From TrEMBL:
UniProt protein name: asparagine synthase (glutamine-hydrolyzing)
Catalytic function, reaction form: L-aspartate + L-glutamine + ATP + H2O = L-asparagine + L-glutamate + AMP + diphosphate + H(+)
Cited NCBIfam families: asn_synth_AEB (TIGR01536)
Coiled coil: none
Domain Glutamine amidotransferase type-2: residue ranges: 2-212
Keywords: ATP-binding, Glutamine amidotransferase, Nucleotide-binding
Alphabetized Pfam families for the sequence: Asn_synthase, GATase_7
Pathway as given in its UniProt record: Amino-acid biosynthesis; L-asparagine biosynthesis; L-asparagine from L-aspartate (L-Gln route): step 1/1
Enzyme Commission designation: 6.3.5.4
PANTHER family assigned to the protein according to its UniProt record, in alphabetical order: ASPARAGINE SYNTHETASE, ASPARAGINE SYNTHETASE (GLUTAMINE-HYDROLYZING)
Species annotation: Marichromatium gracile
Amino acid sequence: MCGIAGFILRAGVEPAPGTLERMIERLGHRGPDDSGLYREGAVGLAQSRLSIIGLETGHQPLLEPADGLALVANGEVYNYRELNAALGAAGRVARTGSDSETILHAYAVHGLDALERLRGMYAFALHDRRRERLILARDRLGIKPLFYARLPDRVVFASELKALLALLPESPRVSAPALRQFLHHQFAAGEDTLIEGVRRVPPGEALVIDSELNLTHHRYWSARRVAPRDIGPEYASYELGERLDAAMREHMRADVPFGLFLSGGVDSAVLAALLHRHGAGRIHSFSVGYRGTRMADELDAAERVAAHFGFEHHRLELELDQVFGRIPHSIWAADELMRDYACLPTSILAEQASAGLKVVFSGEGGDEVFGGYGRYRPPRLERWGKGLLRPGSGGFRTRGQWAGRWQRALYGAALTTVEPPDRAPFVAAWQATPGDWSDLQRRQYTDLVTALPDNLLVKTDRMLMGFGVEGRVPFLDHRLVEFGLALPDTLKTRDGSGKWLLRRWAEPLLPPGHLSAPKRGFHVPVGDWLGGERAARVGELLARNDGIRAWFRPEALPALVAARRAGRGGGRELFGLLQFAIWHRLFIERPGLTPAPHEDPFDWIASD
């Protein structure tokens, strides 16, 4: 697990001295153990390393001089042992214990077809000197991030936006469509980011850049290739167990200890059972709850699961000010704006885990893969009505996060005329699905290519890597994703509940009654914090923020604050403006500024 960065230049162009060093310095939190640089002709590569596999021999960049290849990689190739055995028959012998070296040898033998053979979470840059090209590749589900910007004389790339900001020819500018998407849907989906000109390498793709800076997209995987299956519960349960065991065996490969984030829900409890079943032993597990709030948590349920499997459990009960003191650092760590309140406790859990661990398992993906969310099974009339009012996505992902009255009152001119429409990524995903898929499968797929990589996995990767911790998400092994997506609807939802097959398979392994408890989710008591005098103070400070003045109508802020204080809504809107104001200071006004893990959010809202 690492941070990577670099560039490819147009012929005759020289980078400013120290370019690679400046880029990788911004990614030091992702890889505090080691760093390395490579420069060959027009190409420069850099990596900051978090050592997980091949601790002593995995220094990067990795080079194959005989083949003219150089590589920097972030993440894990979980099936590196199997691939190395197959590659050995072709005369390719690994010299290190690093799983990343396998990428070099696989490419040398198979070219871009090597991507179809890799199983894992990864983003990498590979320089092929003989073919005069640079390859930027990202794993199938987008677990690991990779950004790039195409400039007149170069293409630059990095694991995080913050490493690219200093290389842009002008001061960073906000993308109006991406900002509107964040406001409406709590994240911006697709290839475009919140910074104009900076894009994401799409999941399941490789970007091939030649010496003339021409870009070619090579798609090597898509969930749209999955065909629905007619399969009964008994065989499906057997196959699920086989696939879960195979994924867990590979995900447990590490040369360092690992732990588990244990929420008390279904997915993390299933991971606990699998870790125990595969001999993880007395690993450390972590759960979080809150003091001084009316919101229920799952601390007791998580503790029962940990005790059942003999884990060394850490129960964190947090004060509200402790949670919300994470706001500035979590915004800095995330790079991208998202209104996922769970980033705050996740950041605290990551810091706690980093005291003794480099790897933590987490249950992301279980709902998307096995149909767990309530939004996947709406009443027929609701689905019909939403589809009629906002066509294009079968009534799915139709509702914005901001109330219409606050959009009309607060949006500035640049936000009211944005194209394309806010729902464009969801409509495009829905319309791309095969004709023989069910409504449920379309909903799963739409989330798998929008909300999962551009929201949920941003939280998992960036909050953990903000403290040098690798998050492993076995439910997003692509073999499990294909299996879950292909299942008949009746094996996903029954009796008003989701994840039926997963629950059925896991029930004998878990503490009695665990699966009958109501789902609480990973909630954060924002409403208990952002009210009263705090709301008034936030409103005052927002009016003094350059980003708010540029994109919104500050004169409408008092009405929003008054509504919030009177309990008449406005909480999401006020919190979203707070996030944008702090993000604007960190990424537009003062790139390079880094908050400490615990700060007073009020100190970071108003512009200097």
